[in-house]
Structures are given as structure tokens and as C-alpha cells.
Amino acid sequence: MEIDHSFTVLLVEDSMSLGALYTEYLRAEGAKVTHVNHGEDALAEMERWQPDLLVLDIKLPDMSGMDILQKVQSNYTDITVIMITAHGTIDLAVESMKSGAFDFLVKPFDAKRLSITVRNALKQRQLVNLVAKYEQSLPKANYKGFVGESLSMQAVYKTIDCVANSKASVFIVGESGTGKEVCAHAIHHAGNRRDNAFVALNCASIPKDLIESEIFGHTKGAFTGAVANRDGAASRADGGTLFLDEICEMDLELQSKLLRFIQTGIFQKVGGTKEERVDVRFVSATNRIPWEEVKHGRFREDLFYRLHVIPIELPPLRMRGKDITLLANKLLKEYNNEEGKQFKSLSSDTKKILQSYDWPGNVRQLQNIIRQVVVLNSSDIVEASMLPPQLTSTLSRTSLVQPLIGVQSTAEDNRGLTDVVSCLSSEDGKEDTGLYQTEASLSCSGEDDKIIPLWLSEKHTIEAAIKQCDGNVPKAAALLDISASTIYRKRQSWEEQQKVTS
Ligand SMILES: Nc1ncnc2c1ncn2[C@@H]1O[C@H](COP(=O)(O)OP(=O)(O)OP(=O)(O)O)[C@@H](O)[C@H]1O
């Protein structure tokens, strides 16, 4: 391997004569050398620039070389350190190597000895850089909360890396459960705003009349219940990131106020008169097709263009190939530990089924299924027979079967939902576990021979679940393994369907 002959050295040696001698040796090797004779001076130099090599005497007039080594190890990990020691301090030099120094030179040493050590250090640096470069070019299987090495996910990671330090607004689209929130977090944590707040606001789950105050805050007495001044998400996200999840669910009137805020960075609290200015980076997400929402007048076009500067599309899980088994294995390990089970792997049949299923609920649905398998079974291999019927039946591949149990469900919830699905069937004719609603159960109301439209049967299922959850839509959504906004959207389309059919 060719040694790079233009390298920089910071030499810390208190003896002026030895310093001059070593400088000469190092220059002969092609180094650009800066010589200082105090520890404080060395630290000041490194605040301004970082040398490739630090050649450091262990004994200095103002501090120990070991203290400097420690600082370099925690603050300047790219600098390679060579210690200089006298005979009496060899033990200390050995200790320094344990603390991360590359090598040590025992005084007195000649030009040849220094040359060998410096060349070795440079070779090692080159190798480390080469490995880092190679690693960067490899597909990443884990990236800031994401698991997945498919090409489509690599493209997502690359975009996140590129946009992280910019202030440009990012618009994330993708089906429910594809990881839009993970993506928003990744953008924040990969960028230079990471030390400030990441504030997430779900525009679908906050009641319409509260959302303005949630974003902008309110003053005392602004409305009934506003007992004190309160900062909103905009103030809390100052210097950081404001994540507007389910942005297409936002009320049109509020959309125009948001537009003004995005354009100027200025807003007023609800009930307030004072203008406040903040520096916020916007990341928005939706599982709708935003342009369709614009076309139908539900999402302001001007707001769309403000927010949709850098689009990121999260691919559905079914399009991510081997990522499905990668994720399933990772989840199996995690839930295994949490539940104290002994599962070690997935059988090859299980892998095939997981790979070929549609995953309408994407990663969230995969999480639920693996959790169920782990909770309900005890073995070392996940066999295909342990998978819920929706994955193994042909009918289910058309997504007619909706899981009715979610990870967050409690025993209480399950009892209620079992009532909803009181006539369950299973493919093999054995008694059903009561956890899933199959297509057959949709005709439980004594209409066995009557085929009803799919949207209507779906409506019945969703409405029954909401009823069982005492009208709590987010809770019903969690148990149905869909997002609350999906329910709101479906309600809108049922109204339209009913208008058409009445
Ligand atoms: N690639 C991934 N690797 C690991 N975990 C993931 C991945 N994608 C999503 N998840 C996990 O799946 C769950 C759902 O992800 P997330 O909430 O980000 O999805 P979403 O697209 O925002 O869903 P929704 O539209 O319903 O709000 C979370 O627990 C998240 O941690």
C-alpha cells in the first residue's frame, strides 16, 4: 500500500532541542509539523485543527500526556496518537496503548525508529479509512431506527442523509405502518438540529377545535378551559423539527394559518396579540395521495407546494423483498426476550408465507403477527401452523380478512372484540382461537346466503369495533391494525357510497 506523503503532525515535546530534532526527522518523512512544548498549547491547537498524527511526550511541564490522550480519545477520535516515553515511564506508555494510543517510542530514538512507527501509523489510518469507505458502500441493514436492506430502503436512507442538514421541508408519503414516523425521527436525528426538540403532532387524532392551540399555543382565557398561557408545538420545536403527521386531515381554515406560519416563521398564540418568531424545520406525512387531496379541494395547493419540497416515498412492505424476513427475525428476537420465550428461528415454510403475504398493515402488522406468535406459542422454531389464518388462507391474500387484535390490546379489549366476532371459522374446521374475523363471519347476522358489498362488510366490522371501544376511534383503529385516519377517511367514503346508493 502506498503511503500518503502529505500528512500533518502535531508534536508535543517540552525539550526545545529534542523537538527540533524530531521535527527534522518527521519532515524527512514528508510531514507538515507543528511543534508545541506545553499540553495547554497542544489542546488549543487541536481546537483549531486536527492533525493526522499526534506525537506526544508523556511528561509535560503543565500536564500529563495521559490526560491529553484521554481528551483526544473522547473528542478527536480520528487522530492517531504516538506516545514518547523515557525508560522510567515505559509502564505508563504500555498503559497508554491500552487507552487507545497507536504505539510508543522510547527515548532516545533515531530517525529510522521514528520512520517505522510513523509509517505503520499511517498504514493503519489508511486501512481504517478504506474499511469505513467500504462499509458506506455496502447496503445498510440498520439505519436510524429502520431495519431493511432492500434497494428501495437504501434509496430512502440516502435521501435522509442528503436532506438531514438542510432546512428544506420534507413530505413523507406511504401506506399506514410503513415507517413514516420512523423516517421523520431519522431526518431529525441525522441532521444538525438533533440537539433541539423533535415535536410530533398527529393532525388526525387531535379534535378540530383544539388543533390550532396545539400548534400555536394559547393565552390564558382564550377559550373555556384555557386556565393558563400555554406554548404550542411551534414554540417547543424552535431550533428543531416540527413533524405534522396525517397532514391531509387538517382543517382547511387552519391550513391557511399554517401556510402563513411556514412562509414567515411568525405566529400568534390563540387569543394572543403578540407575534412570535421561531426557526422550525417542517416534516409532514400522509398515507393519502396528497395530489388527489389537492384535486378534491381538501388540501390547499399553495400549502402542498410549501411542504412538498423534498418528497420521500416509503415503499409498502410487500415491495421490500427479503426485508420481510429480516424484520421478522429481528422482531422475533426482541419479543422473545420480552416474553421470556425460546424461539430461535423461522421455519422455511414460515419464511415463504411471510414473503408472499400482502401486508396491508405493513411493518405494524408484521409486528403484531410476530408478537401474537410469540405470546400464543412455545417452541424454538416458528412453524407455519403458528401463523394466523389470514396469512395462510388464499382468501386472506385478497385482504378480505382484517386482524381484530392489536399489540396494544388488553384482555378487556379482547373480550369485547370476541363478541364482535362471535361466529368465527377456521380453515381446518378446528375450533377457532377467536382472534380473527374471517370473511365468513361477516355474514353472521343471519344473512348467510346474502353477499353484501365489500365496503359494507368492512363498514360493519369497523363500526362494531368502534362500538366495542365505546366510540374511541383511535383505540378501535389500533385494535383493527389500521390508523385512525384510515377510519375517518373510510367514513367519508361510506357517506359518499350511501349517497350514491340511496
Ligand atoms: N423499516 C422498519 N424497521 C423497523 N421498524 C419499523 C420500520 N418501519 C416501521 N417500523 C415500526 O413499525 C411501526 C409503525 O411505524 P410508523 O408509526 O413510523 O408508521 P407510519 O407510516 O407513520 O404509520 P401511520 O400512517 O399509521 O401513522 C413502529 O413501531 C415503527 O417503529
Give your account of this protein's structure.
This protein is of the alpha/beta class. It folds into four domains: 7-136, Rossmann fold (3-Layer(aba) Sandwich), CATH 3.40.50; 142-315, P-loop containing nucleotide triphosphate hydrolases (Rossmann fold); 317-387, Helicase, Ruva Protein, domain 3, CATH 1.10.8.60; 402-502, no CATH class. 46% of the residues lie in helices and 15% in strands. The strands form seven sheets. The chain has a five-stranded parallel beta sheet with strand order 2-1-3-4-5, sandwiched between helices. A five-stranded parallel beta sheet has the order 9-12-15-8-16. It has a two-stranded antiparallel ribbon with strand order 6-7. Helix 4 links the parallel strand 4 (80-85) and strand 5 (103-106). Adenosine-5'-triphosphate binds at residues 146-148, 174, 176-182, 287, 327, 363-364, 367, 483.
